[in-house]
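Slide 14.
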Amino acid sequence: MARRLSQRLARLEKVVSPRLRVLDQQREYAEEVARKRQAAWEYMYPTMSEEHAALVVDAYGRGLAYSDHPESRSPAGRLLRRCLDAMSPATHWPYCDIPPEVKFAMPPVVAEVYLRDGPTPFHDCEDCGYKLPHRYFDVCPLCGGRIGWYAYYSRRDAERKQ
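Slide 15: predicted structure.
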């Protein structure tokens, strides 16, 4: 009887243990993402106006980051999504050398554009690498540099080839 019970437990562990490991890995990943997002927020928050920061915090708390939320396309939802996009590590590849003060900045003039129109930041600053929508700015709001399609990467690539 004890032997059968032992065999049954062994079979059960073969099924349950991998599932628990996957759950542990998912939990660890979620915790790591939350830690990185909080660290990014620590850089972003001081660059924002109090009004914009309050909008983002409120929108996040209400779940506007999820596209199935009825208000996800509202101005606050658009600003929240741009903030979360800026915090995403994938957003900054191949610009790994850009300092977090630049990567995570959300100056009020840029936040206003996202609130008003919600464009996608496909361009970047040639000098500092800040990502922003091109047609709204003549120069980078952080450093005054030239803005263009992959301007930062193109400049670094040209410098490496020299």
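Speaker note: The first helix runs from residue 2 to 44.
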